[in-house]
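Dear H.,

Thanks for agreeing to be a second pair of eyes. The structure we're designing against is below in token form, covering all 408 positions.
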């Protein structure tokens, strides 16, 4: 029995739920609505001052509307920052005023995108531009020109013009931004071929590794160190399977990330029944996706060779394709990793590879997209645009004159 003077303290420990961020923040496909600014209208003003009964016209010009630009930024590597910014509006130009005062120009808008971003028109599927370098600026939409004030139309025969020009209307467009990662070597293989294990063993990248198919759900980049402080970039994409071009597995969505690679590293496990057949399947899927990818240099790596002995490796070597370099490796034990780096570096710096890069002009040829694919990928996308009451919207097809009342 507790005495009355005794104080009893109870301590309670509350456990609050931990809010965790989503595991994947890799966004490589967004749709945004862009609109430039409309030009300000010119002023139709007549100068009035004491002792100047006929001051003449002094209406100023309108300011131009703001432009919309795309700008490459190496600090971004995904389009996550644009996922919820669906509307990009530039500022409208200011109207001209008396005393020949020019209207203010509209504020320009810059859309920062990672290097390797390709832009398409969502309504037509037409290719627009490609941003590949840091600081590269591309004008996406041009702002409307400002209208001329009546001061610009004075002549000896028309000394008091009572008209001015309206500003040009704004431009608008809904665009698709598609990111294609920039790397030197791209890994191609079936699920559980050891691609992520290889990337984690030769670089500081830490992709997810597990013993089940489709462990990798997003592309990963890793910088592979080489001799004499040299290095190259390697890209790992989710595994593809036979029939991926028909939508099986993860499909061919992520293959665009290796379109820019100058070298493709095909990876087939050593315990596969027919290595040549699996290599042919992977090559066929690439051809269905983009026939131009077959012109790239290729290297075949037989993985998981820690399960094989020297005699079995020699037997397998006789059955492998002879038109490309073949390397037997094991990312777990380090078998053949140094030789693989040597082969990759030699292929990357070969003369034929350099000539091919120069002939392509440092960029790839982009094809127009089908609009049906955009509608399917963004079926739940809503622009959310609404015209506010009293908003002044001008639809002028020509840069024409407009009669205005005399301003005070």
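And this is the sequence the design step returned. I haven't edited it by hand at all.
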């Amino acid at each position: 029995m507790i005495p009355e003077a005794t104080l009893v303290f109870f301590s309670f420990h509350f456990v609050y739920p931990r809010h965790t961020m989503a595991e994947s923040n890799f966004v490589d496909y967004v749709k945004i609505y862009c609109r430039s600014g409309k030009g300000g209208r010119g002023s139709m003003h007549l100068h009035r001052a004491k002792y100047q009964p006929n001051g003449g016209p002094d209406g100023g010009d309108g300011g131009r509307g703001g432009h919309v630009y795309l700008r490459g930024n190496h600090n971004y590597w995904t389009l996550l920052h644009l996922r919820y910014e669906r509307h990009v509006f530039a500022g409208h130009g200011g109207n001209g005023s008396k005393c020949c005062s020019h209207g203010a120009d509209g504020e320009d808008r810059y859309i920062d995108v990672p290097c390797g971003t390709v832009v398409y028109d969502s309504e037509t599927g037409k290719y627009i531009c490609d941003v590949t370098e840091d600081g590269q600026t591309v004008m996406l939409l041009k702002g409307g020109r400002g209208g001329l004030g009546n001061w610009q139309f004075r002549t000896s025969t028309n000394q008091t013009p009572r008209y001015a020009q309206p500003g040009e209307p704004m431009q608008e467009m809904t665009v698709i931004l598609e990111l294609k990662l920039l790397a030197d070597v791209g890994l191609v293989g079936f699920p559980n071929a050891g691609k992520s294990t290889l990337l984690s063993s030769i670089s500081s990248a830490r992709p997810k590794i597990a013993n089940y198919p489709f462990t990798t759900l997003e592309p990963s980049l890793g910088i592979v160190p080489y001799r004499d402080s040299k290095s190259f970039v390697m890209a790992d994409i989710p595994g593809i399977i036979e029939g991926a071009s028909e939508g099986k597995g993860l499909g061919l969505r992520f293959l665009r990330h290796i379109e820019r690679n100058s070298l493709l590293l095909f990876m087939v496990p050593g315990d596969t029944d027919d290595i040549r057949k699996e290599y042919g399947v992977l090559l066929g899927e690439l051809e269905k996706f983009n026939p131009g990818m077959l012109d790239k240099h290729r290297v075949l790596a037989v993985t998981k060779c820690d399960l094989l002995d020297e005699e079995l490796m020699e037997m397998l070597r006789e059955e492998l394709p002879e038109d490309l370099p073949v390397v037997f490796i094991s990312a777990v034990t380090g078998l053949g990793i140094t030789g693989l780096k040597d082969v990759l570096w030699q292929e990357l710096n070969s003369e034929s590879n350099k000539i091919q890069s120069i002939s392509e002009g440092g960029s790839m040829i982009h094809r127009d997209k089908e609009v049906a694919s955009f509608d399917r990928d963004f079926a739940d996308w809503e622009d959310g645009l609404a015209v506010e009451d009293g908003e002044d919207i001008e639809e002028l097809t020509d840069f024409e004159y407009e009669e205005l009342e005399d301003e005070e």
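Two observations from my side: The chain has two domains: 26-179, 185-359. The first strand starts at residue 29 and ends at 35.

Warmly,
E.
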